[in-house]
Design brief:
alpha/beta, Rossmann fold, 2 domains, 5-stranded parallel sheet, 5 strands, ATP binding, AAA+_ATPase, AAA+ ATPase domain-containing protein
Length: 300
Amino acid sequence: MSDDIIGHKSVFEFFGKVIENDNLSHAYCFVGPRGVGKLTVAKEFSARLFEITREKLVATPDFLIVGQEQDEKTGKTKKNISIEQLQGVKNFLTSSAFGKKYKVAIIDEAEKMSIGASNALLKTLEEPSLWTVIFLITTDEDLLPATIRSRCQVVYFYPVNKIEIAEYFVQESFNDELSKEIVKYSQGLPGKAIVWKNDLESFDNYKLERKRFVNLIGKPFYEKLKNVDDLFGDKTDHIVARDKLQDVLFVWQSMLLSESFEINKKELVDIYNQILYTIEMLNKNVHPRLLVEQVLLKLP
């Protein structure tokens, strides 16, 4: 296992045997929370098939990764992964390999494929080319069409033991006190911990969101509205703004599970479910301010 990958020993053992026995499936669906390491592990396995390091994947003509793109005219993030992108994946996989036998494609945030893109992928999965491997990366396999899920081998990624994350920070000789704080809030998500390590401003922003949520409790509704007003200020890229809002809601959600509030169990469950509903509706382009206001109304 690579020294810079934290956890997921069982996943590495499984793929180690699969690669050793030359028994790869043509498609895998990696499922797990954001920051758990799905994409990094998919890249690592891809690199092993090419017998190179992950850093060299970008220059490998037999490797392709697709995800949400920016619109060339507006500069804004596109809502979906497009049918044209998946048609490109099909053309890529059906062409001859430049190097060794494998061709590998990764579809990041696969749940964001448009209907047309999903149909294009389905055709590729139904008629897989020899020596090709597709990795789908998603937080929830239920957001993918059943026809696609049934043609993939699903691999689940779970939060890792915080001790493993702490050991990584020791190896990196990172600031001891700051390491302990990052590990504490990481929720067992190595990717999140590494992002914070490399970008301390993002960690400060996370702590500010925790403080924001605490300050919402017990306040009049008008004060709650004022406290969240800055969440809706970015009009330049609605897709990016929506994703940032979802990140904030994930912070609130995790605090309900990990912190103690003077909220009875029924209210806590109602708030948690309202946040879940809000995240789901944001993916369906329901007005974000109205959704967040419904969450605020649930808060005591």
